[in-house]
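Q: Could you fold this chain for me?
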Amino acid sequence: MTTPGTDTAPGTDTAPGTDTAAPPAAEVDRRRLLLIVNPHAGGGRGARALPDVSAALRRWASDVRVERTRDIGHAADLAGQAVADGRVAVALGGDGLAGRVAEAVARLGGLLAVLPGGRGNDFLRSVGASRDPVIAATALASSVERRIDLAEANGRAYLGIASVGFDSDVQVIANRARFVRGQQVYTYGALRAAAAWKPARFTVEIDDGAPRELVGWTVAVANSACYGGGMRLAPGAELDDGLLDVVLLAHCGKITFLSTFPKVFSGRHVDSAHVEVLRARSVRVDADRPFQLYADGDPVADLPARIVLRPGLLRFLAPPA
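A: Sure. Below is the predicted structure, expressed as structure tokens.
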């Protein structure tokens, strides 16, 4: 991994702000799979689904090897083993597992597949895949390879949306929740965080342009459309358009915020006067108080953070159009 504060892709010495050239495509047999399972994802959803998922994969794949992760670093090691062995790296877990496996696969030129086993599974929402793990495993047999973009925050790759500010507080609450399950945990976290929220002052630089200040709730940098269990925060974001969608949520009263919040599930919040959406290839963000930048459900960087897009870096098995 690169040192925090740089935007060099893992394993490269690319100058800041430039694109990382995709590595040569590794030779992969799409009927040979390494199923990388986070047994704790989604409150154990991945582990519970594993027997049926394995059976569904073995109906069409010639060789399915199954490995349970010990931690997120172990997941990256397993992804590297998959590429070295000419297998598809198949992540069964949440968005955090998918992002870490994607990072390792992209660096080595391998091929990624993702199956739902977490709480939100927002990456799969963005590509139109089934969120039933057995149906998704069966559908992999007819999947098509796509080249999709990968975003990086201070050198740490992510698939979905990186956000900071109010969203950081929401993620802390959601990750600590014990009695709220599934998608509802993010709505619970948002309502809890709103009660104590004080506006933050953000500094945002778009494509190395002049710094602009925002007093408000959140700065989000999106590679794909969804986060938080189906919230369409960046409804116009596409995984293969070579651009990041930057969503700025400026200051408004809590009553206005709470009345606007339900619109995020349809994406209509972007029509609100206090929401602005920009397009960029790189973004630098800082704030007037400490926050962690979260992406794919996990903390990925401290501020200041520089986020860059690596167009077409990742080979991915997607549902057929």
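A (continued): The CA atoms of residues 25 and 53 lie 27 Å apart.
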